[in-house]
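Internal tracking record. Fields below are filled automatically when a chain is submitted to the structure queue. Please do not edit lines marked as system-generated. If the sequence contains nonstandard residues, flag them in the REMARKS field before resubmitting.
Queue: standard
Priority: normal
Entity type: single polypeptide chain
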Amino acid sequence: MGYRVSMAVLGSLLLLTTVANAEKIGAVLNGYEESPSVSTTAKGEFLASIDEHGGVIQYTESFSGLQAPITQSHIHVAQAGVNGSVVIFLCQTAGSPDPTGLAPQCPQEGSVSGTITAANVVAGGTASQQLKAGDLAAIITAIRAGAAYANVHTALSPGGEIRGQIKVISK
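SYSTEM-GENERATED OUTPUT FOLLOWS
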């Protein structure tokens, strides 16, 4: 009996160590970050943690005040002020499905949470970016370099209504 309790305690400590070692990333989303800028009172936030091995990202994205129905939300690879390839769906709708089928459904307001693994990474639409499906390591490298953003697309703003450059918050 003592062995089982010791193993349970050890397992809990390992889990806490893994969570404590997770790298935190995030972005504040607004219309002025879009390219070109969008005049909207909508706002949002993307918060996530990358596990210590770089194989899993746990995220929550929240948003409110969108001017039209949401169509989808993604992570794109590009520096601030530049539009880039969609690489990960954060949420999907019937009209704009995630090709991997893994992203949760988009709420019209509120928050959505999910888990990203290599299976969530779609090939970048721009061949010149040389992004490949399944290459989560390349996306994490772009995030750490400040060259990735989250955005929310709506029917009124198909290119994106709110956007925020993803930054490392803490390691």
